[in-house]
Structure formats: structure tokens, C-alpha cells
Amino acid sequence: MKKPVAGDSPASSLSPCEIPKSLLPIFLKHIAAFIDSLNVVVLARLLPQSHHRRILTASTSAVAASLLSQRQHRLVLAISTPLLQPPAASTRPLLPPDNGIKKNVQGPTFMRKIWARDKQEAIQVEFNDLGQPIDEKSSSELAHFLGAIARNGRYAPLHYKNWIKVPQTYKKEMLTQVQEKFQLPPGQEDWILKSITKKWRNWKSFVKTNYYDPNVSLVEQMKNVPERVHEDQWKELVTFWNSDASKRVSDRNKVSRGHQKMVHRKGKMSFARVAEKKKKELGYYPSRSTLFIECYSKGETPGNEVASQAMVQNRVCLKSINDPTQIVAKGIVRSIDPSTEVGGSRLRPNWCEVHIQVAVEWDEELIRRYGMFETIGDALGAHVAWPLFLVERDESDD
189-211 and 136-150 are packed helices; what angle lies between their axes, rounded to 10 degrees? Predict the structure, then answer.
């Protein structure tokens, strides 16, 4: 060993190589712990506060990293040390693969700004006489916030078989959260819960469609926990979906879904908001038929499969405006030209001229009356105007 020379400082007389071998493992352990703590700090800045306790209880950075999304994980890898490794168990993507076609897909909506509000900053929401929100901005925020609650396993557990099974304590807590963030008129609790119910069912359907694979063993399915679903709830969901009872219900629902022909064309805009918009255009509240045409038609062409089937010279069934599943008459389509006149008035887009040959519901009122014709029975043998979305091909004629 080199002897110290007079005038040398203590620091200059030492080198890393002279650390005793017995102390080297301890030294390296402290260095690794320091690096690991830096990674945890990075993770804590990226994750919401609700995950901090899980980070602190994680034994390594790799375990804490498994709490991150793929995008956040790549960010950690870019700014932290090479010691941080991706989680061993891969998760299925939020959306199914698109065969190499890159699409711009909006990520999940968490409504963090709404969650951060206190009761003094609650958003006021305007409702109509039917108890439905109609203000464009606030009603949209309310709808998105209800969706965020429905997708939160803490407030709306996903493992219950149906909404009726969800305990009242959870439903009361959901209402409490909504009432703290929004100023709602009295008596809106039923509407709020109905809206959450629909969003909760849609979320469960999304999770099943994109994460559950009946061809994979139950053990493997339980390992493939979606990022936004609680692990204990996921295990109960998978167990139920694997049961024969669930498969029978699923098959029955698929058949029922196949009977649906009419398609809502207004996206996220509710019927109440469409009606309010139409009211401003017309100067009065729109009728049910006007509202139905507005929501289920698109442009100047038939807006769904039912309408496209109603072609000239086809035998068709006419459906009731009050109950679209009920047949009120049968006849033959004579024209779908908007300029064709029936009873002195033009058809207009998305309507057709029908020659009524069979009256099924004699007392059913005509949607567009003219002359002495007020009911289906009055118009037997005559021509009437009928909306295309309420016209269906007569299968008995095939």
C-alpha cells in the first residue's frame, strides 16, 4: 500500500479500491436502496394518491411499477435507472388489436378536476320538467362523472351479478359523491342511479368483451387482471362468467340483441338534450314522432336497416309510433321519393308512401292525418305517409 505523503489530504489518500471486501456488500446494498428510493419517488409522482400506500408497501420498484399503465411505465424507464424492469405479467390492451392500423383512441375519462372540487364549488345542472339534465356543458360533465363512478370499483363493485344485488350502502355513497360535486334539484336521485346503472352495465360488458376469453383456463384468466378492475372483483367475475348459468344468460341476451334494428344516431347526446335543441329551433316542444325521427335518422337517407329494407313495391309491416314492436297494418311501399305528395303534403326525407291493404290495429291513429283519414281503419285501401324507421319488410311474404 502506498504510504501517505506529507501535505496530502485524507481524501486524496483514499481510493474506492481500498474499501475492505467485508464492507463492500453493505456498501452496494445501500447504493441499491438509494436508487430504489429514487424510483419510488418517480412512481409516486406519476400515480394517483390512492396508490401511494401500495407503493410504500411494495418490496421493490418492479412491484410498484406494475401499478403503472404502459405509457407511464415507459416514462419511468426513460428517466430512471436501468434497474427498473417491466412487470412480469403482461396485461391485455385496453382495446382489441387493430391489425396494424394505428388509430387515435381517447383514453379513459377520470374527471380529476370534478373530483377535486369541494361542496362550495359544486356545478349547477339545469333539469327539464321530466327530471332530465338539459344544459349542454353541465349535463355533459355530469354524465361523464357518473360514468367515472360506474367504472370505479370502490364505489360500484363490478362483481355483483346485477345492479339489484349491489348493496344500498354503495348506492348511497354514489349519491353522496354526486351531490357534493353538483347542485341538483330535489328528487333527482332516481335519475342519477338509473344513469349509473346503465353505465355500470356498459362497463361490465366492455370488460368482458375485451378481457375475458372463454378459451383460456380459469387459472390463467384470474392472472390476467385488467388495469382498472380490482383483483378480488375480477376473480369473482371470471368465476361467474365461466359458470353454465352465466353462459345461458349470455346466449339469451345475444339473441335479444340481434332483434334490435333501430340505431340511435346522436352519439352521447341524450334524448332530453335533443328535444331541448329542437324546441329552440321550432319554438315549441317537439312531438314524440319528430323526436324519434331526429334521433334515429341520418342525413337525407334512411338511418337504419329497417328503413333500408322498405323499398318500392315491397310488402311491409307498419309499426306503432307508441310501441315500435307492435304491427298496426300491412301494405305495399309505393314511393320513398321525398317530393311525392300524400294527402296534399310532400313526403319529406325518411318517409315513404304506403298502400294499406291489411288493418291490424283499426283504432291506431295515423301519424300524418289528412282529409277524413284519422285511423288505420279509416285509411284501409288508401295511401298514407309513414316514417321509414317504423317500416319493416313483411317476412311472411317471402
Answer: 60
Are 315 and 397 contacting, i.e. CB atoms less than 8 angstroms apart?
yes
Domain that holds residue 35: 18-79
User: Among 256, 273, 299, which residue terminates a domain?
Assistant: 256
Cα–Cα distance for residue pair 197/233, rounded to 1 Å: 18
Per-residue DSSP letters for 76-128? HHHHS-TT----SS----SS---TT-----------HHHHT--GGGPEE--B-
Domain co-membership, 116 together with 75: no
User: Which residue, of 193, 226, 256, is where some domain finishes?
Assistant: 256
What is the Cα–Cα distance from 70 to 107, expressed in whole angstroms?
Answer: 12
Number of domains in the chain: 3
Q: Is 348 exposed, middle or buried (0-12, 13-18, 19+ CB in 10 A)?
A: middle
For residue 338, being part of any structural domain is answered with yes
pTM above 0.70, yes or no: no
What CATH number has the domain bearing residue 336? 2.30.30
The answer to whether residues 244 and 335 belong to one domain is: no
Would you say residue 345 lies in a domain? yes
* Tens of each residue's pLDDT in the chain, 398 residues: 445 444 444 444 444 445 566 666 666 666 666 655 555 444 445 445 444 444 444 444 444 444 444 444 444 433 333 333 333 333 443 344 444 444 454 556 677 788 888 778 888 888 887 777 887 788 888 988 999 999 999 999 999 999 999 999 999 999 999 999 998 888 888 889 999 999 999 999 999 999 999 888 888 888 889 988 999 999 999 999 999 888 888 888 888 777 766 666 777 777 777 888 888 887 877 776 677 767 766 654 444 444 444 457 778 899 888 888 889 999 999 888 888 899 888 888 778 899 999 999 999 999 888 888 999 999 999 999 998 878 887 877 55
Q: In this structure, which amino acid lies at residue 3?
A: K
Asked if 177 and 246 sit in the same domain, the reply is yes
- Among 320, 321, 335, smallest CA distance to 383 is for 335
Give yes or no: residues 143 and 232 share one domain: yes
